[in-house]
Queue: 2 jobs
Job 1
Amino acid sequence: MRYAAIMNDRYRAAARSGIGAVMGSKMLKAIVVKGTNDIEVADIEAYMEYVKRWHEKMLSHPFTPNRVKYGTTNLIELMQKIGRLPTYNLRQGIFNDYYKIGGETIYRKYLIKPVADFACLQRCGRYTAVYNEPYRCMGGGPEYETLCSLGSRCGISNIEAILYGNWLCNNLGLDSISAGGTISWAMECYELGLISRDELDGLDLRFGNEEAMIELLIKIAYRKGIGNLLAEGSWRAAKKIGRGTERYVMHVKGQEIASQEPRAQKSMGLAAATAARGADHLYGFPVLDEVGFEEEIKERFGSQYLPEIANKLNPRYKGYMVKECEDYMVVIESVGVCKYGTQIPPVFYYDDIVDALRVTCGMDVNVKRLKLIGERIVNLNRAFNVREGISRKDDSLPERLTKVPAPIGPAKGHVVELDQMLDEYYRCRGWNLKTGKPTYEKLVSLGLKDIAEDLLKRGLLVRKASGG
Ligand code: SF4
């Protein structure tokens, strides 16, 4: 199936864009890594001092206690409050039954223990259990993303069914975001009469039908009946079915949009559109305006951009913000640090990474150099995509989000002003405004002359930025 996950540490999923399917296509079942040697650090005393400082900084942030208590599950409550909780296939960002599927319910009734990745004091992972039939299960998760994808997005408020769906996704190796995105698309098409009950193997696929959702997850994993088509993902399935179903696919570059209603947070809309691997909230992860980290925004981006940059409903300066966040996030991925702690709460920034690299690896890099590395990685990603035919036309969002105003909630009346934000983003990147491609000069200035020459030879690059 197309959106297969690579499962690791039993319940953790590297799932987006179906990299498990890539392993499957190579007949690769698993990779086992076992280490026996000690891990050495460059300066053990400075390292221990650094870890202590890092812990103190993290523990003293007001966001941390709730992260330990709820993991990411209470984002359901937080996102409901700002109208950013995708509901009914992103028709709206408000789910009336949100409290039934939120962090408080899970904490009180289903949580066995918080789970941490090695030595992490945030412990955002969950270990939960449902003791009742028919959804008896026990295992890792859920995350906010799954609660939303299999919950509000599908109009489902039966938390035990959602936990069981999460358990199924983990055990069957499905990306729960794409699974929920595909099922909610099918639900909307069914309700609109665009897909018939016969085509759905007799399933009454209304929004809110948890039994149908569970059955579909199994059918998808085993490619049985309608599951064979839905295992292709909503974008490919809609192309095959036609009949106007394409209009209801909530995707970017063929990948289902994750659990962010971008009409209620414009930066997330832009970040989904520009992410290198299709809709991906983690590529730029611009969450600083989400719950108003004004101080950190001021520190990172400059007070001259306030108040607009901190206003999640204002498209102004979001191009700049997303560009900066993308550059930073690819650095974070490269050094192997978790994105929580760097963005939400936004405790650590470039200075801290410079220190970490010095005490652990003995590397002597400064902030300027790290920023350059980040920008270079993003440009390299883009150059790869340009070679594969990607341009501005693909940095898009579904019309529902750019043309149809949010019907209720704090974002009522808002659409995503994508073109305006894209112009600003490309300008900040030094890319061509019309095509969204890096210019020859930009790539050369980043030390990527060989890449620039290659794209030029293929006729995929222009040499001067136009319109900006
Ligand atoms: S490392 Fe990150 S994902 Fe893992 S438990 Fe800590 S905060 Fe959560």
Job 2
Amino acid sequence: MKSVQGDEQARTRPPYPEPVDIERKAQWTKSAFDQYGVWQLVTTIPAVLTQVFKMAWRIDRRDVLVMVGAQVVYGIGSAVALAATARAMVPVLGSGSVSHRVHQALPALVVIAVAAGVGRVAYGLASWSVGRLKPRLMTAADVAVVEAMLRVELSAFLRPEFSEEHEAAETGSVRCDRLIYDVQSFMSALIKLVAAFGVLTALHPLMLPVLVLAVLPSGVGAMAEARIEHQVHTANSTGRNVRGMMRWHVTAGKLADEVRGMSMAGYLSYWYRTLSKRLDDRTLSGAGRQLRANLVAAVFGGLCLSLAWGTLLWLTVSGRMSLAIAATAVLAVRTALGNLTNVVHYAASLFHSSLFLGDWKQFIERSQALMPAAGTVPAPREPETIQVRDAVFTYPNKDRPAVDGVSLTLRRGELVAVLGENGSGKSTLTRLMTGLYTPDKGQVLWDGADVSRIDVNEVWEQTGFVTQQFGYWPVSARDNITMGQPVTLDDDRVWEAVDAVGMRGAFEELPRGLDTLLATELWGGVSMSGGQWQRIACARVLYRRPAVVVMDEPTSDMDPRGEHAMFRLLREIAPGRITVVVTHRLINTKVADRIIVMDKGRIAEHGTFDQLVKGGGLFQELYELSLDRGGRGL
Ligand SMILES: Nc1ncnc2c1ncn2[C@@H]1O[C@H](COP(=O)(O)OP(=O)(O)OP(=O)(O)O)[C@@H](O)[C@H]1O
Ligand SMILES: [Mg+2]
């Protein structure tokens, strides 16, 4: 890796650690090619065509009809032109004066010219409709992926293979671009091939099997090439995923200060280049295998093609075929060969694209299974209580539960504070209360109804959540507050929420008022400070006026004035709803009716501030630590 590290860096300090090579489990490294034989591959083509047509049909029937119709006309034009060529060849190569021969061939020549003209126009029309279908097909496939990602249950993101399946689906949607072009080219070549075969078979029945034999090796070669490419693509998917993630971090303006201030640029560029090289090496090893497959196919193809030309020569020399017919046969063989090669090439390409489309389809289908259940029990409106009963929740890749047998009841009108050390399970508990995760054991009940049996969307319609890592949404200031909620004609409610979090001054300074885009990456956009973003996240919740408010460290970035105002506000709005707030600043818990102290996934203590602060337990210890800045040094 020295060449990547750079000599100077290697001389002055120990080498950077290499990026981890994530080993994928065997079941995920299998590309679809490994599961099918060549025959199965060939037989999947009609299914792929049907699938593409169905997708395109849903988008624009007229364009599909134009594409197919124009393609058929194009094919018929080619067939007519070829058949007319055969007819023109007999007088042209026959006896008599040149003018006499041309005169005799004239009707056939006119047919050739008209058929070729009509064919060109039809081809143009087919390409036009493909051009119109292509972007919409890609968008439809892409939107399906995005919508699946927006709707799958939260726990789907915990499955290690989910992000890879997602990446494969994205590749599939991008490949739709190629797919529709392949469909058009495949159809066009197939129709012309059928025409040439028809003419050839009429000339001599022996020509057909010989021709098929001539082109078969290149077909097998193209399949092998596609197979290797997909295998390499699949093998590289984890690395590509990690690199994509890192690329976002490295190029995001949001992290540019950390990259520079912590002098990370050298390491990050080394990391990026090393991983890219690893991916390239795998791709290059595939290229070698592809070359070998192509060379073998070329040798066999050459032999078989010699056989085809030999047969034609033998038929002519032995007098089994006249010279005029042989000349037409040469033309038909060339047309057939060209189109047969195209059919095989585009079939392989179609198949190749279909593998990616298969990944896309599989992801969309699987994501359906990952949608939250529709619910069999009606959701209570404005619940009086949320009960957590002996809830246990373990993350998939962990041995120890994050929430381990927690029971508690939250009541309407009550403000409950949750605290505990990092990793004690606070955020996980808030996700269980709101149906974002379902406990592995135990229950979460909203007014006695098991949340796992309610349509969770109805639960979420009633919750307002400031999550620990909330979004800095690249939309307008107004949309950042309303975010999908019903909007009124005036902005009164927006300003009410903005006022509540003390952001009026900052919002009034925005160059285009509430229409200003909150993203510096966007033209005319501005950004906010960390604490201001947190105030916006809180304003979002207040705008919703939900029956259940859950805030996970909502003031961690706020100044004392903002924090003070926020907790006062929570106290004020608490009477009409169930309010839960996670905080590390213990003084904040004074406003709470009840405090839950979490420790290693369990409730270690609960009570009021006055009870716990002298309770001799974890709360007292943490409280005293928060006051102790005695300067004794570390
Ligand atoms: N997505 C995840 N996958 C695996 N483990 C996770 C995941 N999220 C959290 N955990 C683990 O679950 C445990 C509880 O995490 P949780 O986020 O609930 O803690 P927390 O009390 O909110 O901590 P903090 O104060 O740092 O926010 C921790 O051990 C954490 O490492
Ligand atoms: Mg947390």
